[in-house]
Structures are given as structure tokens and as C-alpha cells.
Amino acid sequence: MSTKAQRQVWGETLSELSDLDERILILDGDLATSTRADILAESHPDRFIQVGIAEQNIVGMAFGLSTLGYRPWLSSFGVFFTHRALDQVRMLVSQTKAPVRIAAAYAGLLNGSSGKTHQDIEDFAIMRAMPNMTVIAPADAAEARAAIKWVAEYDGPVYIRFARDAVQAVFEDNYVFTPYKPVVLRDGSDLTVVSTGVQTSRVSQALDSLELEGIGAKHIHVPMLKPLDEHELLHELGGTQLIVTVEEHSVLGGLGGLVCELTAGSQEPARVTRIGLEDRWSESAPNDFLLDKYGLSPAKVAQQIKASLNTRK
Amino acid sequence: MNTKTEVLTDLDLSGIIQEARWRVIDTVASSKAGHIGGPLSAMDVLVSLYFKHLRIDPNSPQDPDRDRFILSKGHCAIGLYTVLALRGYFSVDELASFDHGDSRLQGHPDMLLTPGVDASTGSLGQGLSSGAGMALGAKKLGKDFHTWVMLGDGEIEEGMVWETVLSAPRFGLDNLTAIVDVNGLQQYGWPAGPGDRFDRSEPVGHVDLEAVFTGFGWNTISINGHDLKEISDALSFAQSFRGVSGKPTAIISNTTKGFGVSFTQGTYKWHNGIATEEQLRIAREELGQNMEAAK
User: Fold this and answer.
1) Could you give the maximum distance between any two Cα atoms of chain A, in Å?
2) Parallel, antiparallel, or unpaired for β A183-186 and A217-221?
3) What strands, in cross-sheet order, belong to the sheet with A158-162?
4) How far is it, in rounded angstroms, from Cα A46 to Cα A48?
5) Nearest CA of chain B to the CA of A98: how many Å?
6) Residue B135 in contact with partner chain A when CB distance is under 8 A
7) Alpha-carbon distance B224 to A227, whole Å?
8) pTM higher than the cut 0.95
9) Which of A4, A300, B74, B176 lies in disulfide reach of A295, CB 3.0 to 4.6 Å?
């Protein structure tokens, strides 16, 4: 099972796909060695376009190229597309349904100690509010690779998160991405945990440790926040008394928000505990420090799940 | 592809331009929404493009080899719609649906709805970048079409414009032309000072735009944007640079906001506005659209 970093997987997979698919381009905002767009730049120089440090122009040019049949991927830190170039993403990509792929590198909290200016903990909330946008957050290397292959064939706007650093594998290397569907990773009757992105890997470790303590959780991974087979997710959540959502994102408007929106309308609403950034900015620090301080390490997730179970009733 | 209409004289073009200006004012008045000053200042260039220079076929608006035109100052949509209608992309009668519910003619151009609209615009400053992408795509695909983008002098206050002005020469986009409609006014702007032409300060009155674009590595041409010969020469020059100069071209088109009608020209107050019956009568007369004067 692959433990490559997702950004590495992105560069390698696009490089591979480019042999057969002439529509693939990468437009870079001078971060190719970080995002690993440099892999494609070396293997297929004619598919790599250096636009410079100008994210708005990257989105605009990608839109223009897409009208001629290209399927451009955007290379920069995700935060600069979801914030600095948001208006361009909104009008030129989302409103026109352009097949532009926003590869959100260094997504979430863990971005190599760059701190709050570069951490993107609002991207799910922003992007899932946008009509026509597909929002994907793969769990590990295998799912990143499988999702990229699916996106390459999809004719519409896509926002997809790629983590900077490798995580423990969740899926086998031959994993096939199934769009729209939640993925049940384990069964359990004490509660249901819902997670997305690479946080799913850390949640898996948390649930391993809880199992040793006799706590059995059902674990649902949501790789595609939008469009989502909501009926199936609600079905999988049925019968549970306690739902815990975990995401490397603000607790506002992301996966936790999504689950609350869905369950609020159900016949037997369960209690929902949302784990994530508590409406605050983070800081620059090593990954382990951040995961621990902001409650996203396997140990801290396990601890919060137990606390939530104990406050039931 | 039908590349151009039959050869039109400047007199023919003038007649079309006058009718188009009238239809802008009339449509905005009947829809009770829309812009006047910008469409009127740009009309001579718009009609010259669509009736003389663009390689287009209204019967085949998605032809992959057509020239592209992007109205980056998208709030002037009614100006573009009027020209598209007169050129045959859709019926002139459809202009009456402008800004109405379920209309193909939205307040800002929507490429998914309106035949002939090559790029959605509205949020200012984005069209030149879209055009640069199209021009770069044409180069990569070996296609010989030209991409034209019209911007406003108020619009180029947007920072994104300058990201593209800086980068387009690097890609050698001699198949890209930016036309800046310098009509001297914006929606409200600043109080007029010494040297200003109109009742508010010029958005770029303090800037030598020709020197700026030249300095960024563009071919640059300044014209009187109400002189059909100067317009035609500039558009022809820009076309002749394609595949030759290795640089994009900027046409600085000096115009007057609201041009052609006494009460709309040269004032920021007609950035948008709804003409009264009396004003409509005056506009119709001044634009020589008196065929229904008995009304």
C-alpha cells in the first residue's frame, strides 16, 4: 500500500495520463517544486505553462484554454485559488462549467510550517457553496491517484485537495474511485464517525486504538463532498445515536456542516459532534504539534470521541 | 466560413452605428435597466469589428476557427447584444427581452446563454486573461484565429488586468489584441481637476497608457475611437501583426462616454440611466432614427 505524498502522486499520475490525453495541461503559479507540477514539466514540457505568481491570471487563462478543448490543472497552494482567485473561480469556472481542475496543494492545516496565511481551513465551506463545483478530498495516495484518473475524464469544474505530506495508507493500491459515494471503512455500533481527506487516515488510527478499549465505531469516509449521494450517506447514518465528524478544516461549513444539514431534516436526528478547527486561525509549527494542539492527532481524536460518548444522555 | 460581410463603406457602417446607439438607449429605457455611456462610447469599434474585421459566421457561432471577441467591460452588454442582433446572431426583436426573466440576454454576457458571446464577463478585469488563454490555446493548437478583448479605462483599475499585461508578451501572443475604450469617465470616480475632459476626473488621465503598454512589451496604437478610418487601420494593423510581431497589441481607443447623443455624452451621469419620453425623442432625432417619427 502506497504511502507516497499526495502531491507526488498528482505530479506522477498527470505525467502518466499525459502520454495518452492531449487535453491535459498544468498552469503553474511558480510553485512547481512544491506542488510537484515539476514532474510533468520535466516529462512533458509542452504541457506545462508557467504563468508566474498571478493566481487570478492562472484561472483566467485556464478558462480561456478550456474553451478550446484543453482540461487545465492549476498548480499553486490551494489557499490562493479559494481565496485570492475566488472571484475568477466563481465567474470563469463555476458559472461557465469550465473543465478546469483546481489542484489544491498543501491543503488544510499541514503545510510545512507556513502558518495561517497559507493554511486553508475554509476551502470546503467556500467551494461546496458554489454551484456546479465538484469537491474532492482523497484519503491517501491510492485514492488520490484513483480520483485524479476519474477527474481526468470528467467534463466540468473540480476542486481537489492534495496534502503536502504522506499519511498511513487507507486503501489498497488497486483502489477504484467511485464518485458521489460515501465509503464505509469499518462497522461498529457505539457511534458513527464521518471523516474526509487525509484526516480519514488519522481517524482510522484513532478507531484502532478505541477498538482495543472495547469501543466499536462505524467509520464512513466521504471523499467527494459534492456532488454527494446524500440518500446513501443518510442511510449509512441511520440508527446511530451519536455522529462524530472529523476534518482538517474549520468546524463551520465543511463536512461537519454538511452532515448537520443532512441529519437536521431526518426523522430521528442524531446528536452530532464536530471535530475540526474551532473557528480560529492556526499557526506555523511542525505537523505533530499542530495535530495535537488542534485536536486532529489520532490520540486527540480518540480522546474527543470518548468524551462525546461519555456526555451522551 | 463566411469571414466578412460584403464590403461596407464607412457610410454604411455609420448607419449601422447610429441605429445601434438608438437601440441601446431604447432597449435600456424599455427594460428600465442597463448601461448607456459605455456601450455608446464603444459602438464605433464594436460595429467595425463585427461588420468589417472579425472572421465570424453568425450562423455558426461555435465554429472552432472563428475569431474570438470578449467584452471584458461586461456591464456594456446591451451594446454587444445590439451589435450581435444587427449582425444576425439572433433577432433584433429579442433585444426587448434584455434583463427580463428567462431571457438569453442577461445583464452581463453569459456564454452559456447567448449565441455569439465567447466568454462570460461581468466581474471586471477578467476578460483579458480569458483572451490570453484563448490566444495561447490557438498557438498551441496551430490555429490561425485572432482574439480581441475590449476593456474600459475604468476597468483597468482592476489589478488582475496587469497580471495579464505583464505575462502576455512572454507567451508571444501576437494573436491577441486588447482594445481599451478610454471614454474618460467611470461610474462615479473622482472630482474633475484641471485638464480633465468631462465632469469627473479621467480614470487614467494621469497615465500615459501608450507608454505603459509599450513598456510592458506590447505593440501599441492610439486612435480616435469615433473615427472609422482610424479604427479600421488600427484593427487591420493588429491583424497584420498576427504570426509576425511576437507581441500582443494594445489599441488605446480615445472616445467620449455616451457619444452620439447630446444629453448622454461627456457626463458620468449617463453611465446608466433610463431616458424619458422626451429624451427618447431627442435621441431618436439626433441619431437619425426618424422612420417612426410620426409615433
Assistant:
1) 62
2) antiparallel
3) A48-50, A24-28, A71-77, A101-105, A158-162, A134-136, A224-226
4) 6
5) 11
6) yes
7) 51
8) yes
9) A300
